[in-house]
Amino acid sequence: MAPRWKGKGAEGKALADPISKIISQLQSSLILSKSQGLLSGSSVILEADTEQTDFLNRACFGRPIITAEKDKQWFQFTLEEAFYLCYSIKCITIVGENNCIRSDEEVWKYMKSKKESFPEFFKAYCHLRMKNWVVRSGSQYGVDFVAYRHHPALVHSEYAVLVLSEGDDSANGRLRVWSDIHCTIRLCGSVAKTLLILTVNKNGHRAISPSCLESYSVKEHTVTRWSPEQCREDQPIVENRTNG
Protein backbone atom coordinates (compact mmCIF):
# COMPACT_ATOMS: atom_id res chain seq x y z
CA MET A 1 0.00 0.00 0.00
CA ALA A 2 1.45 3.37 -1.04
CA PRO A 3 1.56 6.25 1.46
CA ARG A 4 -1.58 8.37 1.48
CA TRP A 5 -0.26 11.87 1.95
CA LYS A 6 -2.56 14.58 3.27
CA GLY A 7 -2.63 17.41 0.79
CA LYS A 8 -0.27 18.84 -1.75
CA GLY A 9 3.28 19.24 -0.55
CA ALA A 10 2.91 16.90 2.44
CA GLU A 11 5.43 14.39 1.09
CA GLY A 12 7.98 17.13 0.47
CA LYS A 13 7.58 18.44 4.02
CA ALA A 14 8.13 14.94 5.42
CA LEU A 15 11.26 14.36 3.34
CA ALA A 16 12.68 17.72 4.40
CA ASP A 17 12.10 17.01 8.09
CA PRO A 18 12.67 13.27 8.74
CA ILE A 19 11.47 11.72 11.99
CA SER A 20 15.01 10.51 12.79
CA LYS A 21 16.25 14.12 12.77
CA ILE A 22 13.40 15.34 14.99
CA ILE A 23 14.02 12.58 17.54
CA SER A 24 17.73 13.39 17.61
CA GLN A 25 16.91 17.04 18.35
CA LEU A 26 14.43 15.99 21.04
CA GLN A 27 16.99 13.66 22.60
CA SER A 28 19.62 16.41 22.80
CA SER A 29 17.17 18.90 24.31
CA LEU A 30 15.89 16.50 26.99
CA ILE A 31 19.41 15.40 27.95
CA LEU A 32 20.59 19.01 28.22
CA SER A 33 17.74 19.93 30.57
CA LYS A 34 18.07 16.70 32.61
CA SER A 35 14.36 16.03 32.13
CA GLN A 36 12.52 13.78 34.57
CA GLY A 37 9.30 11.89 34.06
CA LEU A 38 7.01 11.18 37.00
CA LEU A 39 5.34 7.78 37.39
CA SER A 40 1.60 8.29 37.62
CA GLY A 41 -0.54 5.15 37.55
CA SER A 42 -0.25 3.56 34.09
CA SER A 43 1.47 6.55 32.53
CA VAL A 44 4.38 8.95 32.97
CA ILE A 45 4.06 12.75 33.24
CA LEU A 46 6.79 15.08 32.02
CA GLU A 47 7.17 18.86 32.11
CA ALA A 48 8.46 20.38 28.86
CA ASP A 49 9.61 23.83 27.84
CA THR A 50 8.61 25.51 24.57
CA GLU A 51 11.37 23.89 22.49
CA GLN A 52 10.75 20.41 23.87
CA THR A 53 7.00 20.80 23.37
CA ASP A 54 7.63 21.48 19.69
CA PHE A 55 9.93 18.44 19.35
CA LEU A 56 7.54 16.14 21.24
CA ASN A 57 4.60 17.20 19.09
CA ARG A 58 6.56 16.81 15.85
CA ALA A 59 7.95 13.40 16.87
CA CYS A 60 4.53 12.32 18.20
CA PHE A 61 5.48 11.36 21.74
CA GLY A 62 2.85 11.64 24.44
CA ARG A 63 -0.31 13.69 24.75
CA PRO A 64 -0.26 17.34 25.88
CA ILE A 65 -2.13 18.13 29.09
CA ILE A 66 -3.98 21.44 29.10
CA THR A 67 -2.75 23.81 31.84
CA ALA A 68 -2.87 27.55 32.56
CA GLU A 69 0.93 27.89 32.33
CA LYS A 70 2.09 29.67 29.17
CA ASP A 71 5.80 28.84 29.24
CA LYS A 72 5.48 25.24 30.42
CA GLN A 73 3.63 22.27 29.01
CA TRP A 74 2.92 18.88 30.56
CA PHE A 75 2.89 15.67 28.54
CA GLN A 76 1.41 12.31 29.42
CA PHE A 77 3.26 9.28 28.01
CA THR A 78 2.16 5.68 27.70
CA LEU A 79 4.35 3.10 29.41
CA GLU A 80 5.94 2.15 26.08
CA GLU A 81 6.68 5.77 25.12
CA ALA A 82 8.20 6.60 28.50
CA PHE A 83 10.41 3.53 28.63
CA TYR A 84 11.58 4.17 25.07
CA LEU A 85 12.72 7.68 26.05
CA CYS A 86 14.24 6.42 29.29
CA TYR A 87 15.83 3.11 28.32
CA SER A 88 16.25 3.03 24.54
CA ILE A 89 17.43 6.56 23.73
CA LYS A 90 18.35 7.53 27.32
CA CYS A 91 17.16 11.12 27.31
CA ILE A 92 15.02 11.22 30.47
CA THR A 93 15.13 9.75 33.94
CA ILE A 94 12.00 8.50 35.68
CA VAL A 95 11.17 9.31 39.27
CA GLY A 96 8.62 7.96 41.69
CA GLU A 97 7.32 9.24 44.99
CA ASN A 98 9.39 11.96 46.71
CA ASN A 99 11.18 12.55 43.37
CA CYS A 100 13.38 9.52 43.95
CA ILE A 101 15.08 8.43 40.72
CA ARG A 102 14.18 4.88 39.70
CA SER A 103 16.67 2.57 38.03
CA ASP A 104 15.84 0.93 34.71
CA GLU A 105 15.17 -2.34 36.52
CA GLU A 106 12.80 -0.65 38.98
CA VAL A 107 10.93 1.10 36.18
CA TRP A 108 10.72 -2.18 34.28
CA LYS A 109 9.19 -4.00 37.26
CA TYR A 110 6.76 -1.14 37.87
CA MET A 111 5.55 -1.14 34.28
CA LYS A 112 5.20 -4.91 34.25
CA SER A 113 3.05 -4.66 37.37
CA LYS A 114 0.76 -2.21 35.57
CA LYS A 115 0.62 -4.14 32.30
CA GLU A 116 1.34 -7.85 32.17
CA SER A 117 2.09 -7.81 28.44
CA PHE A 118 4.41 -4.79 28.72
CA PRO A 119 7.62 -6.67 27.70
CA GLU A 120 6.08 -7.86 24.41
CA PHE A 121 4.37 -4.54 23.71
CA PHE A 122 7.52 -2.56 24.41
CA LYS A 123 9.63 -4.80 22.16
CA ALA A 124 7.11 -4.30 19.36
CA TYR A 125 6.92 -0.54 19.97
CA CYS A 126 10.71 -0.26 20.01
CA HIS A 127 10.93 -2.38 16.84
CA LEU A 128 8.76 0.09 14.94
CA ARG A 129 10.30 3.24 16.42
CA MET A 130 13.79 2.06 15.51
CA LYS A 131 12.56 1.91 11.91
CA ASN A 132 11.52 5.57 12.25
CA TRP A 133 7.80 4.85 12.15
CA VAL A 134 5.53 7.06 14.22
CA VAL A 135 3.62 4.77 16.60
CA ARG A 136 0.32 5.70 18.22
CA SER A 137 -2.41 3.84 20.09
CA GLY A 138 -4.66 1.73 17.88
CA SER A 139 -7.53 1.35 20.35
CA GLN A 140 -9.98 3.23 18.13
CA TYR A 141 -9.43 0.59 15.43
CA GLY A 142 -9.47 -2.41 17.76
CA VAL A 143 -5.71 -3.03 17.43
CA ASP A 144 -2.67 -2.36 19.63
CA PHE A 145 -0.89 0.32 17.59
CA VAL A 146 -1.15 2.22 14.34
CA ALA A 147 2.03 3.08 12.41
CA TYR A 148 2.57 6.23 10.38
CA ARG A 149 5.34 6.99 7.90
CA HIS A 150 5.56 10.51 9.34
CA HIS A 151 3.47 12.91 11.41
CA PRO A 152 -0.29 12.14 11.32
CA ALA A 153 -0.91 15.70 10.10
CA LEU A 154 0.99 14.85 6.91
CA VAL A 155 0.10 11.24 6.17
CA HIS A 156 -2.53 8.62 7.00
CA SER A 157 -1.40 5.60 9.01
CA GLU A 158 -0.44 2.64 6.85
CA TYR A 159 -0.48 -0.23 9.34
CA ALA A 160 -2.85 -1.44 12.01
CA VAL A 161 -0.62 -3.43 14.37
CA LEU A 162 -1.39 -6.42 16.56
CA VAL A 163 1.22 -7.70 19.02
CA LEU A 164 1.33 -11.43 19.69
CA SER A 165 3.62 -13.57 21.81
CA GLU A 166 5.19 -16.68 20.33
CA GLY A 167 3.75 -19.82 21.93
CA ASP A 168 1.45 -17.97 24.33
CA ASP A 169 -2.11 -19.03 23.52
CA SER A 170 -3.63 -16.81 26.20
CA ALA A 171 -2.01 -13.69 24.72
CA ASN A 172 -2.93 -14.72 21.18
CA GLY A 173 -6.59 -15.42 21.88
CA ARG A 174 -7.80 -12.63 19.61
CA LEU A 175 -6.77 -14.51 16.45
CA ARG A 176 -7.42 -18.11 17.44
CA VAL A 177 -10.57 -18.43 15.36
CA TRP A 178 -11.16 -17.54 11.73
CA SER A 179 -14.04 -15.18 12.50
CA ASP A 180 -11.70 -12.94 14.56
CA ILE A 181 -9.18 -12.80 11.74
CA HIS A 182 -11.87 -12.07 9.19
CA CYS A 183 -13.41 -9.26 11.27
CA THR A 184 -10.03 -7.65 11.94
CA ILE A 185 -9.03 -7.73 8.28
CA ARG A 186 -12.41 -6.33 7.22
CA LEU A 187 -12.06 -3.49 9.73
CA CYS A 188 -8.54 -2.68 8.56
CA GLY A 189 -9.70 -2.69 4.95
CA SER A 190 -12.56 -0.33 5.72
CA VAL A 191 -10.12 2.27 7.06
CA ALA A 192 -7.50 1.64 4.35
CA LYS A 193 -4.88 0.05 6.58
CA THR A 194 -2.83 -3.12 6.23
CA LEU A 195 -2.92 -5.49 9.20
CA LEU A 196 0.61 -5.97 10.53
CA ILE A 197 1.13 -8.75 13.05
CA LEU A 198 4.27 -8.52 15.16
CA THR A 199 5.03 -11.80 16.90
CA VAL A 200 7.49 -11.47 19.76
CA ASN A 201 9.58 -14.52 20.61
CA LYS A 202 11.27 -14.45 24.02
CA ASN A 203 13.60 -17.26 22.93
CA GLY A 204 13.48 -18.86 26.35
CA HIS A 205 14.37 -15.71 28.30
CA ARG A 206 12.21 -14.60 31.20
CA ALA A 207 11.21 -10.93 31.49
CA ILE A 208 13.14 -10.38 34.73
CA SER A 209 14.99 -7.24 33.62
CA PRO A 210 15.12 -5.01 30.51
CA SER A 211 18.38 -6.67 29.44
CA CYS A 212 16.27 -9.63 28.27
CA LEU A 213 15.01 -7.47 25.38
CA GLU A 214 18.28 -8.04 23.52
CA SER A 215 17.41 -11.74 23.29
CA TYR A 216 13.86 -11.16 22.07
CA SER A 217 13.13 -11.37 18.35
CA VAL A 218 10.26 -9.99 16.29
CA LYS A 219 8.62 -11.55 13.24
CA GLU A 220 6.58 -9.37 10.89
CA HIS A 221 3.55 -10.66 9.00
CA THR A 222 1.17 -8.58 6.92
CA VAL A 223 -2.32 -9.95 6.35
CA THR A 224 -4.62 -8.80 3.59
CA ARG A 225 -8.07 -9.86 2.49
CA TRP A 226 -8.13 -12.27 -0.43
CA SER A 227 -10.35 -11.13 -3.28
CA PRO A 228 -11.47 -13.89 -5.68
CA GLU A 229 -12.29 -11.30 -8.34
CA GLN A 230 -8.69 -10.11 -8.41
CA CYS A 231 -7.11 -13.57 -8.43
CA ARG A 232 -9.44 -15.58 -10.64
CA GLU A 233 -8.23 -16.58 -14.11
CA ASP A 234 -10.70 -16.78 -16.95
CA GLN A 235 -11.18 -20.42 -17.80
CA PRO A 236 -12.93 -21.79 -20.86
CA ILE A 237 -16.26 -23.40 -20.16
CA VAL A 238 -16.10 -27.11 -20.83
CA GLU A 239 -19.41 -28.56 -21.87
CA ASN A 240 -19.93 -32.18 -20.98
CA ARG A 241 -21.77 -34.21 -23.57
CA THR A 242 -22.71 -37.84 -23.65
CA ASN A 243 -23.00 -39.77 -26.85
CA GLY A 244 -26.33 -41.33 -27.34
Description of the structure:
The chain is an alpha+beta fold and 244 residues long. The protein has two domains: 15-115, tRNA intron endonuclease, N-terminal domain (MutS, DNA mismatch repair protein, domain I, 3-Layer(aba) Sandwich), CATH 3.40.1170; 116-226, Trna Endonuclease, Chain: A, domain 1, CATH 3.40.1350.10. The protein is built from eight helices and eleven strands. The protein has helices spanning 10-16, 19-32, 50-59, 79-88, 104-114, 118-129, 178-190, 228-231, and strands at residues 36-40, 43-48, 63-65, 73-77, 93-95, 101-102, 134-137, 145-148, 159-165, 194-201, 217-223. The strands form two sheets. A six-stranded mixed beta sheet has the order 3-4-2-1-5-6. Strand 7 and strand 8 form a beta hairpin. The relative contact order is 0.12. It is an enzyme of class 4 (lyase). Its EC number is 4.6.1.16.
List the helices and strands and how they pair.
Elements: H1 10-16, H2 19-32, E1 36-40, E2 43-48, H3 50-59, E3 63-65, E4 73-77, H4 79-88, E5 93-95, E6 101-102, H5 104-114, H6 118-129, E7 134-137, E8 145-148, E9 159-165, H7 178-190, E10 194-201, E11 217-223, H8 228-231
Parallel strand pairs: 1-5, 9-10
Antiparallel strand pairs: 1-2, 2-4, 3-4, 5-6, 7-8, 8-9, 10-11
Helix pairs in contact: 2-3, 4-5, 4-6
